[in-house]
Amino acid sequence: MHRILKTIALAFTAIAIMSVTTPASADEGAFKYRSAVMKAVGGHMGAIAGILKGEVPHKEDLVGHTHAMAELAKSTGKIFPKGSDVEKSRALPEVWSKPGEFKMVVDTFVTESQKLADIAKSGDMGAFGAQFGKMAKASCKACHDNFRKKKG
């Protein structure tokens, strides 16, 4: 009987410890996931910019880069859950205090990145370059200017 009570007490202790530590782990996990997604977006943006500038001759890769970015854009609305504003995060409090404005920027990213992916399939480099600039200004720059801490 003593052994059963001891096992039950240990189980309750483990549950209590997990309930205290899990939220911090979940917040950190959400931050790490968000960081990975945003680094992937940045990687695709950098690759596309390199192609557009003529630094590399891989125009055939634009469809893949833009498709991947359009898919990543769809997840950006859910990768900023409340509580994921951990110390290392560069997300400003406005992400959570101005959710309507943040959603508009995210929605713009989704729409404009999909347009970019569609244009990439056409092969029209003039239209592609124009859309790339529009997307970068309307979504990336808008988000970084209003919802992201400056480096430093």
Question: Can you walk through the features of this model?
Answer:
The protein has 152 residues and is mostly helical. It has a single domain (27-147), classed as Four Helix Bundle (Hemerythrin (Met), subunit A), CATH 1.20.120.10. Helix content is 76%, strand content 0%. It contains 5 helices and no strands. It has helices at 2-52, 62-75, 94-97, 99-122, 125-147. Helix 1 (2-52) crosses helix 2 (62-75), helix 2 packs antiparallel against helix 4 (99-122) and helix 4 packs antiparallel against helix 5. It is elongated, with a radius of gyration of 21 Å.
Main sheet overview: none
Q: How much strand content do the residues show?
A: under 5%
Number of domains: 1
Q: Roughly how many Å is the radius of gyration?
A: 21 Å
Termini separation comes to: 60 Å
What is the CATH C level class, in words? Mainly Alpha
The SS-based structural class is: mainly alpha
Q: What is the H/E string?
A: HHHHH
- CATH 2nd-level architecture: Up-down Bundle
Low-confidence stretches: 9-24
Number of helices in the DSSP assignment: 5
Mean pLDDT: 85
What spatial form do the alpha-carbon principal axes imply? Answer: elongated
Helix content: over 70%
- If you consult CATH, what is the topology? Four Helix Bundle (Hemerythrin (Met), subunit A)
